[in-house]
Amino acid sequence: MPVLTKKILTYLSDDPSPGEVARFLALLELTQPSPKAATINYIDDSGTIFEIARFGLANKDPFIDHNSIWADLEPFRHVRNNELALIDPSMVVEQAEKSKMEIQPDSWLRSVVVIPVVNKQVPVGAIGLMFDQKLTELPDLGIDYESLQALMILAFRTPSFQREITRSARGQVPELTDQEMNIILLVARGYSNKQIATQHQIALPTVKAKISKLLRQFEAANRKDLVEKTKKLF
């Protein structure tokens, strides 16, 4: 058994958390050069992809936020086709803007290697390796690609991963006051901050502060994204 395969298998036998595995993958020297960060992402039966762990990133993986893998974004095309891919983050930002999405990668991010995880020809996840230097070609993996996929499928079945997959799939919905719920409804109806302030008889800076707080709570990029992410509350 190759050294890296045995090392990963031994590590997984201790049932580490997804966050610990993301850190392990980033520091394992899977590639040369080594990545600065890593993410682990899961794809559910509906084809929705979402992050379950990250290491080394301040912001969420810019490509993953409960989106469908059928979305017309470069990383998803490679995941669907079970292809390793070298992705330029600036290109994805440009594609996202055309789709009226807003993504903000960490400022140091220069290249992303996407490693699909496929089980019986069905995409079930993806690993993202993040680099702070511009790569011109896909780096070689220090482990057989099929073996890495098999090990990640095994990881997805562990109790720690199953708990995090369930939690991430449901989402962590912050508790909101009646006023905050009403503000979201007014935002959805297209009200401006000034109109919301008048409606609630509160100061304009207070409205701005409350909306900023809501954007942070739901990790929303903008008002439209906030409305989309809070639909399930109403």
Structural class: alpha+beta
Average pLDDT: 88
Give the helices and strands as they follow along the chain: HHEEEHEHEEHHHHHH
CATH topology of the largest domain: Beta-Lactamase
Let me know the largest β-sheet: 6 strands, antiparallel
Percentage of residues in helical conformation: 40-55%
CATH superfamily of the largest domain: GAF domain
Measured between the Cα atoms of the first and last residue, the distance is 53 Å
The general outline is elongated
CATH architectural grouping of the largest domain:
2-Layer Sandwich
* Contiguous runs where pLDDT drops below 50 for at least 5 residues: none
CATH class of the largest domain: Alpha Beta
For the record, the count of structural domains works out to 2
- Give the strand order of the largest sheet, numbering strands 1, 2, ... along the chain: 3-2-1-6-5-4
With helices defined by DSSP (H or I, 4 residues minimum), what is the helix count?
10
Radius of gyration: 20 Å
The oligomeric state is: single chain
